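TICKET: design request
STATUS: open
ATTACHED STRUCTURE:
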């Protein structure tokens, strides 16, 4: 490859910057739950990772995380109901460069709609060096409500230099 490091897909030295891009790419009904595919496109080996799945409105609980290229690389995967998901290898095994499902997460979404997103990603290689993280677009679940009309005849008045009174 152009980087001379990992026999990767780089054909130009500008492609040698290590990066991991993650996004929710699919959401499938799974009984009473929804299974989200967390996809990762990475240009460097990944030995450890962590991120948070969020929901707006906050009507989601993360039930489980499993599978994907993380499991195939022998990573231990853990998750918490607040949306935190992490995976790592105790022996430094890396997920090779590629574009695959990193992990699948089961979500309990208690609403007709939600904007699901991934935030606070931390990724590293086997040497513990940080890999920059980029994020795909948020995933829209259901049909978002209509945007309300802008209010008419709205006025604002500053009160005591710190408060605003709306009429």
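STATUS: resolved
RESOLUTION: sequence designed for all positions
ATTACHED SEQUENCE:
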């Amino acid at each position: 490859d152009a980087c001379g490091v990992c026999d990767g897909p780089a054909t130009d030295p500008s492609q040698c910057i290590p990066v991991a891009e993650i996004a929710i790419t699919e959401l499938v009904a799974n009984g009473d739950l929804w299974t989200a595919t967390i996809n990762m496109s990475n240009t460097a080996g990944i030995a450890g990772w962590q991120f948070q799945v969020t929901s707006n409105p906050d009507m989601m609980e993360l039930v489980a995380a499993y599978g994907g290229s993380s499991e195939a690389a022998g990573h231990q995967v853990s998750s918490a109901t607040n949306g935190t998901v992490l995976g790592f290898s105790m022996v430094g095994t890396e997920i090779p460069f590629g574009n695959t499902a990193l992990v699948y997460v089961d979500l309990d979404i208690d609403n007709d709609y939600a904007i699901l997103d991934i935030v606070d990603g931390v990724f590293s290689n086997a040497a513990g060096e940080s890999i920059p993280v980029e994020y795909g677009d948020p995933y829209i679940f259901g049909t978002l409500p209509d945007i309300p009309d802008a209010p008419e005849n709205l006025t604002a008045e500053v009160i005591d230099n710190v408060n605003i009174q709306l009429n």
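CLOSING REMARK: The chain has a mean pLDDT of 91. The first strand starts at residue 20 and ends at 30.
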